[in-house]
């Protein structure tokens, strides 16, 4: 049973027959969208900055022949949280489309802003804990708590590479501190994979040129992801964690520049949220492949 964070069963029910009919219709929409491989429709807004986990989850579920009831419920909830989200251009962030939910399904604020996101987060946290089992830092045998932001990113990267899931980068030029990320403003870096893959969208403060794209593309994916994750606001707790990871990665050139850990490297190489940014990650999601882009 798909449950809320408190462990109570979470059921998608409308308050009237009319509203229930709409809820059932959306459930069917979710099933059909997943069947057709429309993975972008399962990009849930769950208020936890863990979009990378759900991108990986959705692709793994797409590769399965048979889904459990819990997995189907997760996908349905993710579809709801994607369908009923809207983008606030003033604050450059996703928000819940509460009026739309109320008008169409008769469901209130608590359902969309609290109960459903909590259920999604619980499912994602359990998923990443299982994925993190057996991962350790080479030479140290040192395993970290899987609910820390940096290590969830590291876990997704490692497991996705093991399963040969492609990553694809998209970049936009950020003009000022509070400009918003119009989906149409992103440019592709490299060829779009022709199968389900993980999309990483980021901004640069530099002018986008073929040379800039080539420079970003030459950065190892591990360095790009780990530096962005290390400098993320949810990670800046214990920098010793990043010093340990720094030792594992092939970063001799960076060490010559005087970088002592991944946070230093993020700032030096432009992977931090600063005025001179080369590539700063904004969002990660699952996509179906080249023929649908």
In short:
The chain has 293 residues and is of the alpha+beta class. The protein is built from eleven helices and six strands. It folds into two domains: 17-131, no CATH class; 166-292, no CATH class.
Describe the structure.
With 293 residues, the protein is an alpha+beta fold. It folds into two domains: 17-131, no CATH class; 166-292, no CATH class. The protein is built from eleven helices and six strands. The chain has helices at residues 17-35, 51-62, 69-83, 98-105, 109-132, 149-162, 210-218, 221-230, 239-248, 252-256, 262-269; strands at 85-88, 93-96, 167-173, 187-189, 197-204, 280-287. The strands form two sheets. Strands 4-3-5-6 form a four-stranded mixed sheet. A two-stranded antiparallel ribbon has the order 1-2. β1 and β2 form a beta hairpin. The longest helix is centred in the middle third of the chain and has 24 residues, at 109-132. The chain is globular, with a radius of gyration of 20 Å. Residues 1-9 and 137-147 have low confidence and may be disordered.
